[in-house]
Amino acid sequence: MDKFETLTGVAAPLPMINVDTDMIIPKQFLKTIKRTGLGKSLFFEMRYDDAGKEIPDFILNRPAYRQAKVLIAGANFGCGSSREHAPWSILDFGIRCVIAPSFADIFYNNCFKNGILPIKLPQEVCDKLMKAAENGANATFTVDLAAQEIHAPDGEVVAFPVDSFRKHCLLNGLDDIGLTLVKKAKIDTYEQARKTAQPWV
Amino acid sequence: MTAPRTLFDKIWESHLVDRQDDGTCLIYIDRHLVHEVTSPQAFEGLALSGRTVYRPEQTLAVADHNVPTTDRSKGIADPESRTQVETLEANGRAFGVRVFSMDDVRQGVVHIVGPEQGFTLPGMTIVCGDSHTSTHGAFGSLAFGIGTSEVEHVLATQTLVQAPAKNMRVLVNGNLPQGTTAKDIVLKIISVLGTAGGTGYVIEYAGDAIRGLSMEGRMTVCNMSIEAGARAGLIAPDETTFAYVKGRPLAPKPADWEAAVAYWKTLHTDDGAHFDAEVVIDASEIVPQVTWGTSPEDVVAITGSVPDPKAEVDEGKAKAMQRSLDYMGLVAGQPMEEVKIDRVFIGSCTNGRIEDLRAAASVAKGRTIAASVKAMVVPGSGLVKQQAEAEGLHTVFLDAGFEWREPGCSMCLAMNADKLEPGERCASTSNRNFEGRQGRGGRTHLVSPEIAAASAITGYLTDVRKFLG
Ligand code: SF4
What we know:
The complex is a heterodimer of chains A (201) and B (469).
Chain A: E1 6-14, H1 21-24, H2 44-47, E2 70-73, H3 85-93, E3 97-100, H4 105-113, E4 117-120, H5 123-133, E5 140-144, E6 149-151, E7 157-159, H6 164-172, H7 176-181, H8 184-197
Chain B: H1 7-13, E1 16-19, E2 25-28, E3 31-34, H2 40-48, E4 59-62, H3 79-95, E5 98-100, H4 110-117, E6 125-128, E7 142-145, H5 148-157, E8 159-162, E9 166-173, H6 182-193, E10 201-206, H7 208-211, H8 215-223, E11 232-234, H9 239-245, H10 254-264, E12 277-282, E13 289-291, E14 299-301, H11 315-328, E15 343-346, H12 348-351, H13 354-364, E16 374-377, H14 382-390, H15 393-400, E17 403-404, E18 425-428, E19 443-446, H16 449-458
Parallel strand pairs in B: 3-4, 3-6, 4-5, 6-7, 9-10, 9-12, 10-11, 15-16, 15-18, 16-17, 18-19
Antiparallel strand pairs in B: 1-2, 2-8, 13-14
Helix pairs in contact in B: 2-5, 6-8, 13-15, 13-16
Bound molecules: iron/sulfur cluster (SF4).
């Protein structure tokens, strides 16, 4: 996993609530056995027409947002399935930070596992950032994870909360599995105790 | 004396391996279900880092999303689907994990297979790279969906890094009226909570209407917990649970049975335990339900009509409603029972079990589906199919004009060949009505198996109570 320290770029505004994982990446792209290459299919049904041509109006197809690094969306972003293809496609597109008033649990979790920073902010703050993001290529955002700050294009600084352990892992690009295996003795002790108490498990 | 605890607290605490100072917990995972769509990258990760599966015997794999529901003797036509299924089998061999292959009678939708085999037991932690893992909560086990990175984590360590959830109780009191099913209960709950109402919570379902449900009905309710945003659903185990589990292939051995049941009986919320949220619903007021939009919270009574976005005060919601109506090809005020359908899908991990098929068959028996409708029944597993055929249900369906298919996820998410054409409208017993879920441009109405069967017959969304004698 790549480290996440600071991120500077354009933010794409997607003012929709309940953006579900089927919208982020529809099922026909779940057939891959790889993690990469999904960026071109991100938001497929909103982004391309029936003939597979780009819909020029869709936010990520507009020239100003083709290189967006941040996505700002409505409440309950990422609801639906557990498919990690959703964060994979976002990452593969080049977006490493999603800002929304709220997220679905599994999606939120999955972001951290893939080096994406999901930021939860109050509705009115999101609305303000969304408005700023509408200025397209002239509106550059900087997300500073160590300081837990977003520097909005107008110079305003917005603080955001993030769980300290997750922040630590993201800043250092740490792999969860390696961290857990350090605790192998504890896992084995747990299993032994369990085996005696509940032999049917 | 310890403070009163919820069922969730009890299961959580009994699985704690480690707790960091910041509150992050390492919890032990008893059972890991694996399917072909969310696992290839996890196994690949293991292989790349030279890791093995920590407890292969606590892992069970089955392909369900991509499998064809028609004749399988020729294999899978779609090359990508075939690769995924073959990759699962190859990974099973390479890592020593049990796989139920496509030609195994035990193959089926992963959330139907687990309980059916007794792999799912009360008091356990169960995960799967699939959001509908919440189904298994019906046994009083903490069961939730995880992403592929977490699948890899569980494969490699048999544990997960998690923060505890908040507790919510949904009490469904009173008697369920005739014609109303477990599916209607859960659709009602979702319409009350909204698709994000359960976010951050584990929901315990309680109350006499829940107690009165069979195990299969309880699974239907827990299955859709995720549609209310909850990580998991839970129902305390009782005699109904024990009777269901007893004798299943992977249930506790006779020598351990008494001890297991004695333990399971401790798995209930103590009197006075704290819930962070509580919702009470009167079962006697629940009528058969149907969705009108593209979010599972878009629910109305089958006797109701399409709501009007203009009546919605929240601007964002009104916009989402209008978008839904445009997509669904519906207009505000239209009575639900006047909505004409093209397709019917009976199946999925929500409603693909034997009782669901019996319920649908009881409506279809001696009747014929409308000429304009294409309807299919997809049993949830090979064993469900076998049982249904032993009871002659397949003949009831075939005589009525339904197709009788092989087990799998099928048109629940349309990853195989079973899908809606653009603009086609379907009464479906599955769990998601998102845009494009059942095929690009397809329009889904979520209903109970009974309503699905009744709708197949009339060609319109139909209140099943018209068919009850
Ligand atoms: S039946 Fe549908 S919801 Fe259930 S596991 Fe399969 S695709 Fe997912």
